[in-house]
Design brief:
- By secondary structure, the chain is α+β, with helices and mostly antiparallel strands.
- The chain folds into four domains: 40 residues, no CATH class; 101 residues, 2-Layer Sandwich (Tetrahydropterin Synthase, Chain A), CATH 3.30.479; 26 residues; 263 residues, Transferase(Phosphotransferase), domain 1 (Orthogonal Bundle).
- Helix content is 41%, strand content 20%.
- It contains 16 helices and 16 strands.
- Strands 9-10-11-12-14-13 form a six-stranded antiparallel β-sheet, with helices on one face. It has a three-stranded antiparallel β-sheet with strand order 3-2-5.
- It is globular.
- The termini are far apart.
């Protein structure tokens, strides 16, 4: 009898041990009952009925980075290029990832290969080598559409490299060498010009200071009983920082999350923007929200919600949101760093832009706003300082978080959403912002880039429109309509501008191109 009790007790203990399942953090487990799906276990301690229920699959819910080996792809010209791809994804539905596809990793790999072959097969070699972003966008859209039914969310697709055939690679390197020599000559000429300007300015300041010193010495000597006193050396001429980055101040943090901060990029009513480096040594822009905004109890929830919306925005002319933390003592978000000056700095230093630059600005900013509006986001503060000028075109930044600063927060901090001179009439009158408000600001930005100063709401705009090329003026005039209903959509703007736009090899004037090249220089 005792032996029986011991055996029964051991069996009961074994059944209890078999019933206990611990699911680690950021994981999930799919449980089946008699071979059919029963439930999904989240992180923590759980009991599973022995011999009736079983754990079918354990799923890692963290973001996964999957590098695929280089894939040989044939272009439209029958040339073979090797494309190296990296996919960033995470599982959002463990049940679908278990039952809707046999192996979602293999499915993603095969879909990537077939999509690459189709996308590159329609391009010639030159277009393939210069269209990384376009190919990445096509891949991400196709993968996002297909993987959604598998319970997978594809966050990012990047092409690490596109390698042409060896014979063509040698020809390209020779061409690039000649292009580098040409660019180097331009940079040297621009550097000499800047050096001459600074030298002349230094000589002018030295002459002025010497004249002032001689005048002061003469005045002192003219006073009875005063002996000559040695003069202080002239102050050195300060050379402006090429990149426009400010050193970190004593009170500034040195690290936010996993990002090492190296410099200040700017400061505004919402917070301070720092230049940072990711653990993978990628440059990023880190915006830290001002502490007074966080006093509102609902702010963090709104901030997290708006950042989630902003992460959906894609396209070539925006800065992608890559990370954020709404629970930190001071909430922060991280976007990709776009190397280049703001449109505000360019206009301040060089003045009005030529027609070819205005056309590219108009198309790029409209395309960025189209992507932002397609995600039900309104920028609310489009202005030259929120537009970065890069070598490949304009990039719109600081979108998607303005709505987190609601009327309560704004009243308490005496802040305003929008900037005087760029706000639409309804925005200035407190009637709220719509996508049409962004189109009004878009029109003002283009007038400003053509040489007009931002003008108050209600002031005549005829003189500003006269500064624009005849192909742009009609579109901008519609954008500046006082009635929001009369303003075009971004899609309508793009359709109208595409009919008159003429492609230019270099959309920037040489001095502005040099300014952009300085921002691409190595930085700490």
């Amino acid at each position: 009898m005792t032996v029986v009790l011991i055996v029964v007790g051991l069996l009961a203990l074994l059944a209890l041990i078999k019933a206990i399942h611990v699911v680690p953090q950021a994981s999930a487990a799919v449980v089946e009952r008699f071979g059919r799906y029963a439930r999904t276990l989240d992180a923590g301690l759980h009991l599973v009925v022995p011999f009736i229920e079983s754990v079918r699959n354990r799923i890692d819910l963290r973001e996964q980075v999957v590098p695929f080996p280089p894939q040989p792809v044939i272009t439209h010209e029958r040339l073979v290029v090797n494309v190296d791809t990296v996919i960033y994804y995470r599982v959002t539905d463990p049940r679908a990832a278990t039952y809707e596809v046999a192996s979602y990793i293999q499915a993603i790999e095969q879909l990537t290969v077939t999509t690459l072959r189709k996308a590159v097969g329609d391009m010639d070699l030159e277009r393939t080598l210069t269209s990384r972003e376009a190919i990445s966008t096509v891949l991400r859209e196709v993968l996002a559409g297909a993987s959604g039914t598998w319970g997978i969310l594809v966050n990012r697709v990047e092409l690490k490299s596109i390698e042409p055939p060896a014979s063509i690679q040698e020809s390209i390197e020779k061409h690039l060498g000649a292009d580098r020599d040409k660019r180097a000559a331009i940079l040297i000429a621009e550097g000499n010009r800047q050096s001459a300007i600074l030298t002349a300015e230094g000589a002018r300041r030295a002459a002025l200071m010497e004249a002032e010193t001689q005048r002061d010495v003469a005045a002192i000597l003219a006073t009875p009983g005063n002996a000559p006193t040695p003069t202080a050396p002239a102050s050195p001429v300060l050379v402006p920082r090429q990149l426009g980055h400010e050193p970190l101040r004593k009170e500034d943090p040195r690290r936010i999350g996993r990002y090492h901060l190296t410099a200040r990029l700017g400061q505004g009513g919402m917070g301070t923007v720092f230049l940072g480096r990711s653990p993978g040594e990628r440059l990023v822009a880190v915006k830290v929200i001002r502490s007074e905004h966080v006093a509102n109890a609902d702010f963090r929830q709104r901030f997290a919600r708006e950042i989630q919306s902003a992460r959906r925005v894609g396209g070539f002319h925006t800065a992608a949101v890559v990370d954020s933390d709404a629970t930190s003592e001071r909430p922060w978000l991280v976007t990709e760093y776009i190397a280049g000056p703001s449109l505000h700095d360019v206009l301040k230093q060089y003045g009005a832009m030529p027609p070819r630059t205005l056309h590219t600005l108009a198309l790029g900013i409209a395309e960025a706003l189209e992507g932002i509006h397609s995600c039900d986001i309104i920028h609310r503060d489009l202005k030259p300082s929120n537009i970065i000028i890069s070598a490949t075109g304009p990039r719109v930044i600081d979108f998607g978080i303005a709505r987190a600063f609601d009327s309560t927060t704004l009243t308490r901090t005496n802040a305003r959403l929008g900037t005087d001179g760029f706000m639409a009439p309804e925005q200035s009158e407190g009637s709220g912002s719509t996508s049409a408000s962004d189109l009004y600001a878009y029109g003002i930005v283009l007038c400003h880039a053509a040489g007009a100063a931002p003008f108050p709401v209600g002031q005549t705009r005829d003189s500003a429109l006269e500064l624009l090329p005849s192909t742009l003026a009609p579109v901008v005039a519609r954008c500046l309509s006082r009635d929001p209903a009369q303003r075009p959509t971004c899609t309508e703007v793009l359709e109208q501008l595409a009919q008159v736009h003429q492609k230019s090899d270099d959309w920037l004037p040489p001095p502005v191109r040099t300014m952009v090249d300085f921002h691409n220089a190595p930085t700490v």
